[in-house]
Amino acid sequence: MRSIWFCQPNPSAFRLLWNIVVCLTIGLNSFGCQKIESNRVCLVSSLPRTGVSKQLSDEVVRGIRLAIDEVKAKAGRFTLEYRDLDNSAAASGRWTSEGEAANARMAVEDSDVMAYIGTLNSGAARVSMPILNYADLLMVSPANTAVGLTKPGLGLPGEPNVYRPSGRLNYIRVVPADDLQGPLAADWAFERGVRRVFVIDDAGVYGRGVASLFADRCREQGMTVLDHVSIDPQAAEFKSFVGSVMSADPDLVYFGGSARTKGGQLARDLVSAESEAILLVSDGCRTEAFLEAAGAASLEGRCFATSAGLSPQQADCEEKLLFLRYRQKYGTCPSNAAIHGYEAARLVIRAITDVGQKDRRAIVESAFASQVDDGVLGQWGIDANGDTTLQEVSVSVVRDGKFVHEEVMSTAGIGKKDGSR
Amino acid sequence: MDVASFLEQCGIGITSGGFLGLIAVGYTLVYGTVGLIHFAHGDVVMLGGCLSLAILSFLVPLPVDPLTGCLIVVLAATCSGLFCGCMNVCIDQFVYRPLRNAPPLSPLVSTIGVSFVLMNVGLVWIGPTDRAFPEIFLESTRLIGGVPVAMADFLVLVIIVPPVFCLYILLRQTRFGRSLRSIAAITRATARSGEAGKLVIATFFISGFLGGVASVAAGVHATTINYQMGHQMGLYAITAAVLGGIGSVPGAIVGGLIVGLIRAISVALLGPRWAITSVFLVLIIFLAFRPQGIFGKSKTRGGQR
């Protein structure tokens, strides 16, 4: 008996069957792909989700999620999908180059990803910027302040072109850079009557940058910069060092750095040594981690922090819809980080909506052309370098165990806005 | 730097050098007994600091008067010492003991592995940020014999002097101490069993206990602790042990004091970034002239110590 498997096939019927299978496969695949590609757009963020910066990252992510929720996860005809990527390692407690590079590569390789929100740290941005630039992927930072990332002639040699290997721009930040924060902090100190300053930094990209700009401006203002010293951010304490600070007898001690790089310990040791100098810290220290390490009670009324942009605690911001929604959703007022995360996400969503197609270059160009009239922090846009046109820096003071808004400074002059509560 | 500043820096250096010396004794005891640099020792100390922070933060209302403060801190140091001693014994029995006959690199790599594991335990325990050590005393300085004394520095001495004294008695006056010194270099094979095995367990316990006590002193001195503190303290303590002559208990203590002094004075003169560089520069130069350290014995041609 002949098996059915050995029967002679009918060539024409076989060919017909084969063609049907091929057509169905191609048709279904292309239909499926087209359907996914046409409806889904991915927005990723790359932030340190463990370690000292986790709290700040959480706030940025909350802001992003709120912006997405406001548009019901829709950007024009696209459905928005948000991926919260981690660029840190638990062992180091901070962002890592490997983590940041992996996130950037993943975003580039996924054709659905149309925007990359990050990073929190300027050093991390240096890793991912060239990777994303090659792919023309829009990168919007809610927190980077190092001047070299965008401004020619102010950073390291070769900056910012080294981050733009394609020759085109794709990086935007929604916070003012350190060339605003450092000098305006010096202006604030001068207005306060400070004449002798001792400048300390954490030897990092951000800390050293902002501290140097502060020191330069102090000299321009005629103040005496007693010394500018970098600390070892791995040191357990600074008792010996604080002795030299005290012997210089400064009116003000400025620290450029963050809580992660021992800002809290330094403040604690200064207070323990019974220093009477005012302590002014950069925005990296404007965190609960800093207050916890330093001991908030001992800093009451004598420790000030600058932060780029307007403070969320300003009275004229209180009535904004964002604040109501944020409080409704998370039970607290949004911090600076949350607001900048929110604004970054809104910028991205608006650009995707305006372009209406998955064209990374067009989305970048649309974002650069953005003019925000209904921003949480007022009207702002993006300049030719990718920087925000906002020119304000807020000063906060430690009061009742937390940072409370004190003043707003801008390049137009220092204007007191009493929004403190 | 004027004389007053110099003396102040010396005070800071001796205080920090004291607890570094205590940690260095842990390294030197373990090395002298089983020939192993126990790299995880710094992280054991860090976990001791976490425990003492928990005890001082949650169990006792602080600050208090000096006598009560001293008693509370001695209690915390004892608890922390017992905890670290037991942890050290467990690490030895479960991780190092099976590797006694392994090639030298195997236990070395496993000590580094244990160090990372413990660091992550600390991360989970106290979180990623610096945690403030509670203020013990109501007053920060007190006049003792007309001289203003920082109470924190006084407390560090209260914590570290008794264990050093007890260790001296233990090593010099007891049968256990004589046995320990006589086996200054137990071979790996004999360390696995019998009386030598018990001595190894005791050595790891004592080394951990001293580390636990030192962790409280470190917390009081620095006023904060964090999960990465073990790394740098361990680095300084190993340096102290090598400088003093690895295997020598008095050498470890003297080495600790020297490292503390170099660190404090270099920070004051050159700035905080140069502390580690200065300490290691002195170590390199010193070892070039005296490779065996201050109290170490030089090797003979036959390799006998």
Uncertain segments of chain B:
301-305
What is the strand tally of chain A? 18
Task: Tally the structural domains of chain A.
Answer: 2
Query: Could you tell me how far the N terminus lies from the C terminus of chain A, measured between alpha carbons in angstroms?
Result: 96 Å
Q: What's the architecture of chain B in CATH terms?
A: Orthogonal Bundle
Q: Report the sheet-strand fraction of chain A.
A: 15-25%
- Annotated CATH topology of chain B: ABC transporter involved in vitamin B12 uptake, BtuC
What count of helical segments of chain B does DSSP give? 10
CATH level-3 fold name of the largest domain in chain A: Rossmann fold
Over all CA atoms, what is the radius of gyration of chain A? 26 Å
Structural class of chain A: alpha/beta
With strands numbered from the N-terminus, the spatial order across the biggest sheet of chain A is: 10-9-11-12-13-16-17-18
Unreliable spans of chain A are 1-7, 30-36, 414-421
Named CATH architecture of the largest domain in chain A: 3-Layer(aba) Sandwich
User: Distance between the terminal alpha carbons of chain B, to the nearest Å?
Assistant: 43 Å
Spatial strand order of the main sheet of chain B: 1-4
CATH superfamily of the largest domain in chain A: Response regulator
Biggest sheet architecture of chain B: 2 strands, antiparallel
